Amino acid sequence: MSGPRVPRNSTALYRAVERIFDGVDAPPSDYHAVVQYMNEELPRFEQATVSYLVLGSYRGEYGYRLREFANRLNMPATAESIVLGDTMELTTTVIPEFDIKLNLLGEAATYIAGVYEKEDGGESPELGVIRALFSSKTFVLPRDYVGVAQESLNTREDIITAALTVYYSDASDEERKRELLSLLRVAEESEIEITERELTDILLERDGEIAEPPASYSWVHLSLFKRFEALNRCYPWTTLSELRAHADELPGPTRPKWETEFDPNDLL
User: For a Cys-Cys bond, which of 42, 64, 76, 204 suits 253, CB 3.0-4.6 Å?
Assistant: First the structure.
């Protein structure tokens, strides 16, 4: 009769447990909570070839977009994503629930993906922790991010973000139209490839999905985004379709060939 199977990433899990209880005199019930969480949540990661821990805002429309992204990551049969906010709740006496979840899932996951849309809320401390502990396997996906010190319109993303600011301003329809045409002239002069139709479609798509002005971030957020940008692991997005597309760009299993070649018109 064989004994209990040792998890394939047992060294990382032991490292996480040591951090969780480091310097803290915790009661046995807290140790039981950690074991319960490991038994409940980690087997999904164990069975996957590639696993993702997904962080961000878990409520309202933010949570809807976050889970859309996580579902996209889940599409390959050998991949598994877990949204931290959707895991089981824990009752502990001394150890914070946040410490248990982020340390265990962060160590167990192959990659970590953080989707950011605002500067307040629980995702702020999460971003700091993953930067400190799991930087080498983390990707950040900030909405409407264009850089820390963007002083001019140099890229397609700059034009789109500037257009969003105009679109959601209090100006009249005529004033907004003039400003948007002015942005298109700047794009043409700077040899940035974006047409009036493309910009209009992007604005309408954004308004239908996310009827909000461009996201704003604190200096700390921007500095961390800039860090991941330097590592080529920062994926800005404006619309939900762009966020879904970024899920395909993250490292992981190759999608089935039919998924990209199938044409719905074949059914008509």
Answer: 76
Whether residue 229 is found in the same domain as residue 244: yes
Q: What integer pLDDT is reported at residue 263 of this predicted model? A: 58
Q: State mean pLDDT over 197-206.
A: 91
Q: How much of the chain, in percent, has pLDDT values that exceed 70?
A: 88
pLDDT at 122: 65
Q: How many domains would you assign to the chain? A: 2
DSSP letters along 32-93, please?
Answer: HHHHHHHHHHTHHHHH-SEEEEEES--SHHHHHHHHHHHHHHT-STTEEEEEGGGSPP---S
Rg of the chain over all Cα atoms, to the nearest angstrom: 22
CB 140: neighbour CB atoms within 10 A? 26
Beta bridge pairs of residue 80: 51
The Cα–Cα gap between 63 and 57 comes to 6
- Is 14 found in the same domain as 132? yes
Q: Write out the two tokens for 98.
A: 């946040």
What the block records as the tokens of 19 is 């951090």
CB atoms within 10 A of CB 152: 8
Mean pLDDT taken over the chain = 86
Selection from 218, 237, 261 nearest residue 156 by Cα? 237
Tell me the residue range of the domain where 72 lies: 10-145+215-251
Tokens representing 164 are: 């969003």
Half-sphere exposure of 261 (CA within 13 A, CB side): 4
